[in-house]
């Protein structure tokens, strides 16, 4: 194994004792061994620190860092990227699983396709015990040569994305705004990445997303409620999530070097988005809503 890892895997966690060990095992047991697994503990109060220290003592590829206080789910996710050193980066969740060949096959895709910016696989949904409940099979647009068509993939704000934990070129990630303080931080970042290049999706179901009652979207079912998970500093504040979506998408289009034709096409995509979500935009402005 190379001393310098080829892939950095960032795993932010807060009180993840129930599933964390399984997630760590599935990542450290990847067939692609040139990895570092960076765990940023958001001041957990359960057995998370003990689990992480136990693995770190037996595998030098695991780097454990503990925060003194809860900075929020999104800042912690950004933090793990700031600690990464490899040319490829991948986010991971403490409650999900990956088949052993996930990283190897994603890296191979990026190595053989220099114009692709992200590689991922199809997604399976598993339950608390790890049993597969559903194999997702959705139509994707991110392999299109046109940035405006790829953008459409992530403007459906209630869809579930399987690309959020894809292996990405770190140099391209550094050109983006990374995760923004927004409940849809993943879609906003993936939209910007998609504007910058194609995604390659393996046809196999190598990523397994766990459905359980402790996921943040279950604990905070409403978009405005979810700001408390995004960052404790935003809890209870008046927020405008749909306007923030529009601002984030528009900012990504403006920041990305695009041909004039594609920039206009992206503008039309956003106009269509406004037409689809005008009620939500109006609701954001309703007095009394937080």
Give a quick summary of the entry.
This protein is α/β, with parallel strands linked by helices. It has helices spanning 20-28, 48-58, 73-82, 102-112, 147-152, 170-173, 185-196, 216-219, 227-230, 241-255, 260-276, 278-284; strands at 7-13, 35-41, 62-66, 88-91, 97-98, 116-126, 132-135, 167-169, 198-210. It has one domain (7-219): Spore Coat Polysaccharide Biosynthesis Protein SpsA, Chain A (Alpha-Beta Complex).
Structure write-up:
The protein is built from twelve helices and nine strands. It has one domain: Alpha-Beta Complex (Spore Coat Polysaccharide Biosynthesis Protein SpsA, Chain A). The protein is globular and about 55 Å long. With 290 residues, the chain is α/β, with parallel strands linked by helices. The N and C termini lie far apart (51 Å). The model has no long low-confidence stretch (mean pLDDT 95). 38% of the residues lie in helices and 19% in strands. Strands 1, 2, 3, 4, 5, 6, 7, 8 and 9 form a nine-stranded mixed sheet that branches. The longest helix has 17 residues.
């Amino acid at each position: 194994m190379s001393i310098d890892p080829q892939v950095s895997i960032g795993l932010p966690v807060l009180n993840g004792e129930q599933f964390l060990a399984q997630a760590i095992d599935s990542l450290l047991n990847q067939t692609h061994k040139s990895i570092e697994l960076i765990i940023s503990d958001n001041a957990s109060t359960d057995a998370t620190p003990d689990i992480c220290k136990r693995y770190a003592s037996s595998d030098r590829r695991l780097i454990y860092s503990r925060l003194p206080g809860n900075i929020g789910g999104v800042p912690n996710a950004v933090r793990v990227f700031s600690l990464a050193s490899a040319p490829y980066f991948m986010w991971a969740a403490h409650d999900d699983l990956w088949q052993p060949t996930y990283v190897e096959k994603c890296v191979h895709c990026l190595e053989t396709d220099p114009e692709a910016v992200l590689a991922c696989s199809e997604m399976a949904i598993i339950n608390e015990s790890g049993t597969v409940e559903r194999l997702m099979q959705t139509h994707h647009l991110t392999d299109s040569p046109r940035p405006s068509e790829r953008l459409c993939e992530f403007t459906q704000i209630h869809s579930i994305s399987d690309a959020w934990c894809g292996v990405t070129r770190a140099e391209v990630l550094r050109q983006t705004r990374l995760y923004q303080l927004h409940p849809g931080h993943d879609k906003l970042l993936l939209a910007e990445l998609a504007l910058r290049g194609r995604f390659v999706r393996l046809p196999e179901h190598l990523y397994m997303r766990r459905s359980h009652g402790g996921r943040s979207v279950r604990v905070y079912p409403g978009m405005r409620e979810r700001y408390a998970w995004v960052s404790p500093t935003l809890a209870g504040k008046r927020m405008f999530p749909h306007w923030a979506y529009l601002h984030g998408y528009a900012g990504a289009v403006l920041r990305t070097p695009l041909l004039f034709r594609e920039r206009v096409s992206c503008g039309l995509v956003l106009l269509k988005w406004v037409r689809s979500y005008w009620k939500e935009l109006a609701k954001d402005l309703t007095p009394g809503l937080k």
